[in-house]
Amino acid sequence: MVYIASWDEFVDRSVQLFRADPESTRYVMKYRHCDGKLVLKVTDNKECLKFKTDQAQEAKKMEKLNNIFFTLMARGPDVDLSEVTGKEQIETQPAKKGRGRKQ
User: Is the pTM higher than 0.85?
Assistant: First the structure.
């Protein structure tokens, strides 16, 4: 097991690990409330990568990693990840006219 200190390195190596063997790669999240620690683990039964943090900022980055893995699993390991931003684009709807009381 390898604990990786840098978030960017963990994401890059995790994506490489998934692309090398998408059938047997697993992604596990473990949060311990009493310690306030979040541990992320990516493994393919040969190599195990781990990232541990107690910072709330790092927990926000976990959502981006989830979106990356969802994209890889849904579209295949050869998909371009440059379009994955971690947040879905919210389309703004135009204001509806004719509702409410006229002023």
Answer: no
Region 3-29: mean pLDDT is 91
Tokens 């200190």: give the residue. 5
CA distance 7 to 21: 21
CATH of region 2-75, choose from 3.30.720.10, 3.10.450.120, 3.30.2310.20, 3.40.50.720: 3.30.720.10
Where do the domains of the chain lie?
Answer: 2-75
Q: CA neighbours within 13 Å on the CB side: how many for 55?
A: 10
Residue that the structure tokens 């998934």 belong to? 18
What type of residue is 75? R
Residue whose tokens read 């002023």 = 103
